[in-house]
Q: What sequence folds into this?
């Protein structure tokens, strides 16, 4: 066989392999989403683990600190969020702390059970059990974003022995000034609902202020993400009805008066989801809290301004004192 013939056969095999790979990802675009999420965790130095706690299988990411006596930070995502949302902040910490970042039960890769309650109070009880499991010997620095902030406030108030310091980022759970998002929730709608490419783009426009911070999900990966959100639509609506319109929607703010730990309240001025007026409402209930209001960012402070969020958490850990 001539060299030219061998090269032609090799080229044909490579082309066939590439076409097969393209056909596979077109048929199963979820592989692209999974690969990107894995890349984000890997680049942040995070490893994925599984643990059975409070009747659920939890999937969480973890990174050990550079020194054994470093604090443990537990980072809790918000409504429609996942553990990977914290990857930019994890990179900003650069090994200073042990990081434990779960998908809350019902969300991401963690288990969702039929007919279970995934509101603020039930999730706070599950999160308290999770903290006991991952950090049995010492309290943690507990950080929550959006819905996760409401859950975290309840844990810090109800289980003070588990939490040395607490941070609420753009947190739900108080009656903030009316905005379009809040009015839609009160009317029984889900402003975050995604069912096609246009609604996906609208979702990102609501939660992000800075254009460069918005995730880029190309075809055909967007098909997989949209399909997942369509499957989750009923679950999302049920959770939103409970935490946004139900009787426990303001429970985190009510219970926040019991928070005695050093605390951080951090918002973005352009947050179109949880209006920045919520910062003042939480501050009235947690007077020892340090208040930080960042400019030029929206609801996703942890992704839009990770260096500034990391600096605020560093200050909380270094200088916070119980009241």
A:
């Amino acid at each position: 066989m001539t060299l030219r013939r061998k090269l032609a056969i090799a080229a044909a095999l490579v082309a066939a392999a590439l076409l097969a790979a393209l056909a596979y990802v077109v048929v199963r675009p979820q592989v692209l989403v999974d690969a990107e999420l894995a890349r984000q965790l890997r680049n942040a130095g995070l490893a994925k683990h599984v643990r059975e706690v409070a009747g659920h299988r939890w999937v969480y990411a973890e990174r050990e600190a550079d020194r054994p006596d470093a604090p443990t930070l537990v980072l809790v995502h918000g409504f429609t969020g996942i553990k990977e949302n914290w990857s930019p902040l994890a990179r900003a910490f650069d090994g200073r702390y042990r990081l434990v970042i779960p998908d809350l039960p019902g969300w991401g890769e963690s288990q969702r059970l039929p007919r279970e309650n995934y509101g603020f109070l039930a999730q706070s009880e599950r999160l308290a059990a999770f903290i006991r499991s991952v950090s049995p010997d010492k309290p943690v620095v507990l950080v929550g974003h959006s819905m996760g902030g409401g859950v975290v406030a309840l844990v810090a108030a109800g289980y003070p022995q588990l939490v040395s310091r607490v941070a609420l980022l753009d947190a739900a759970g108080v009656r903030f000034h009316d905005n379009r998002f809040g009015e839609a929730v009160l009317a029984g709608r889900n402003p975050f609902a995604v069912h096609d490419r246009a609604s996906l783009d609208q979702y990102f426009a609501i939660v992000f202020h800075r254009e460069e911070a918005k995730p880029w999900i190309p075809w055909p990966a967007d098909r997989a993400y949209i399909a997942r959100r369509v499957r989750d639509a009923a679950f999302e609506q049920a959770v939103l009805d409970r935490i946004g319109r139900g009787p426990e929607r303001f429970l985190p703010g009510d219970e926040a008066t019991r928070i005695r730990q050093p605390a951080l309240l951090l918002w973005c001025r352009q947050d179109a989801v949880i209006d920045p007026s919520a910062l003042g409402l939480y501050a009235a209930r947690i007077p020892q809290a340090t208040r930080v209001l960042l400019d030029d960012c929206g609801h996703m402070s942890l992704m839009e301004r990770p260096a500034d969020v990391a600096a605020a958490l560093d200050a909380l850990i270094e200088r916070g004192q119980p009241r």
Observations:
- The chain has a mean pLDDT of 92.
- The first helix runs from residue 3 to 27.
